[in-house]
Amino acid sequence: MKTIRTIALAIMIAALGPGAGALTVDEAQAILTDLDDARNFEENDFAAVMRITSEDPEDGVERRVVQQFRRDGEDKFLMLIQEPTVQLGQGYLRIEDGLWFYDPESRQFTFTSLEEQFSGTDARNSDFGASSYANDYRVTAVTEGTLGRYEVYVLDLEATNNEVTYPTERMWVTRDLYLPLKIESYSDAGRLLRTSLFPSYARTGENYIATRMIFVDELIQGRRTQIEIGDISLADIPDTVFTKTYVERVNR
Predict the structure, then answer these.
(1) Which of 85, 165, 207, 209 gives the lowest tally of CB atoms within 10 Å of its CB?
(2) Helix%, strand%, coil% for the chain, nearest 5
(3) Closest Cα partner for 51 from 81, 21, 18?
(4) What is the rounded end-to-end Cα distance, in angstroms, of the chain?
(5) Which residues pair with 124 in a beta bridge?
(6) CA angle 240-41-39, nearest 5°?
């Protein structure tokens, strides 16, 4: 849900007319809180099926089906690969002590990082958990613009800690619901590393989920990953799902 402050801000801008209510950096910072609130499922568990298509100029096209479970209120998630068969049962489990990758062939858990690529795709592990922009970034500049048919705010972001995947980002966010449509992610040296596109969203309860995501590798021409999300559920998920024991059991 949007904060009272930002709702009041939107009303003020609408009353003044186009171009009359340019945001300050401090006001734009509040948008990050609303952005997190809109995309995080704090009151419900979340489950979905992701169909991932990766394109690589050398490896060709690869397709994966992944079962996703999230519990944003406890900052937990589980990603279980269902297809292709050679990766069946591989999983990524985020729990209190970090992020773990499970390989059913070796039956071993390996500690990994949110910054790492997800299963060799252009998605990062950090793309699948709760949104935390308000805590991880500060707005350094804000402008108004358009992206396709949408009126947007363009936010320049700088990381406030070294735990994020990208130190600086530029985000195009809708002016009405504060949903990201495009994100450019940069290195410390200012080199564009990845462009993320979110062309479609679905409302689920009080929240919004991007049902289509496109991640473009800006370092390797022709490399990109598209993710389509369906079979969404907000039903309660048993506590045992977010455990190493569960991941091992479903692979037997």
Answers:
(1) 85
(2) 20, 45, 35
(3) 81
(4) 41
(5) 117
(6) 140
pLDDT tops 80 at residue 252: no
pLDDT tens sequence across 189-226: 999 999 999 999 999 988 999 999 999 999 999 999 99
Cα distance between residue 238 and residue 115, in whole Å: 27
Beta strand spans in 57-191 (E) = 60-71, 76-83, 91-95, 98-103, 108-112, 137-147, 150-159, 168-174, 180-186
DSSP letter, residue 152: E
d(CA 11, CA 234): 31
pTM of the full structure: 0.88
**CA-CA distances (angstroms) from residue 230 to 35, 65, 187, 212?**
21, 11, 32, 9
DSSP string, 189-236: T--EEEEEEEEEEEEETTEEEEEEEEEEESSSTT-EEEEEEEEEE-S-
Residue 230 tokens, joined: 């369906």
pLDDT digits (tens, 9 = 90+) for 118-141: 998 999 999 999 999 999 999 999
Could you tell me the two tokens for 172? 């195009």
At position 234, the amino acid (one-letter code) is: L
